[in-house]
Design goal:
By secondary structure, the protein is an alpha/beta fold. Helices cover 37% and strands 22% of the residues. The strands form four sheets. Strands 5-4-1-13-14-15 form a six-stranded parallel β-sheet, with helices on both faces. One of its GO terms (molecular function) is metal ion binding.
């Protein structure tokens, strides 16, 4: 059964660092031309949807903010649905703060919070972690945008949000609730955003541990592309296989 819509990972799928994966760029632009809905689903909580779309446009991909779902956006929506207008202490960058405020949540500067949310923060300080720890110990619910322990950069792999989250987890002895891939929270949000049932959607990605397990955990079909992190040999060694595997999206017929 062909898909009626597609979800795409970014790094390793649409591009590698600053270099676009041309087959993926061409595929997405073909979806746009044929009116097939698509959405870019990313664990990156530091960028706004518009900033992600702008980066993609710079690589020749037809995209706007409506084509993007970040883990920060999903986090904001998750909290707002549970607890509208809640007070949130946020450790993170502009993309996270903006996403929380867009959902009508109150971002506070001290430990008197209903929720503590942590996303990647490249200006992390001891005081930010201290306030977060105090709030969690006082009863705030602990949420992490994603568990990525390392992120790829031009310098190599640097500490990711999962590494930062571990500081709060260890010091408070509380387990966070994770929002981003491979947790299934974003699957329902993504399907709703593109207006399709989950059985009509395929998740496309290069990383088994995040992208493919995200689809598997969320109950949607998956397609592994061999343009990024994991090789076909690695994929074949996994207990649960992706629904499809292609060398590139040039092979996939709509």
């Amino acid at each position: 059964m062909k898909a009626k819509g597609y979800l795409f990972d970014l790094d390793g799928t649409m591009y590698n660092g600053t270099e676009p994966v041309q087959e993926a760029v061409d595929f997405v632009n073909r979806l746009q031309a044929e009116g097939v809905p698509y959405l870019f689903v990313t664990n990156n909580a530091s960028m706004t949807a518009e900033a992600v779309a702008e980066k993609l446009r710079g690589m020749g991909v037809h995209s706007d903010a409506g084509h993007v779902l970040t883990s920060a956006m999903a986090t904001g929506r998750y909290i707002a649905e549970l607890d509208p207008g809640a007070n949130v202490y946020a450790i993170g960058e502009h993309g996270l703060i903006d996403a929380l405020e867009q959902q009508g949540l109150q971002v506070v500067a001290d430990e008197h919070a209903d929720y503590v949310v942590i996303g990647l923060d490249r200006q992390i300080t001891y005081e930010k972690l201290a306030i977060g720890a105090l709030a969690i110990r006082a009863g705030a619910r602990f949420i992490s945008t994603n568990g990525d322990i390392a992120i790829p950069t031009e310098r190599g792999f640097l500490p990711g949000n999962g590494a930062l989250t571990s500081v709060l987890r260890v010091t408070t002895e509380k387990e966070p609730f994770y929002i981003g891939k491979p947790e299934p929270v974003m699957v329902n949000i993504a399907a709703e955003m593109i207006g399709l049932a989950k059985e009509d959607v395929i998740m496309v990605g290069d990383n088994y541990h995040t992208d493919i397990l995200f689809g598997i955990n969320g109950g949607i079909r998956t397609m592994h592309v061999n343009s990024g992190v994991h090789t076909p040999v690695f994929i074949q060694g996994q207990d649960v296989q992706p629904t499809y595997m292609v060398d590139s999206l040039a092979e996939w017929i709509l």
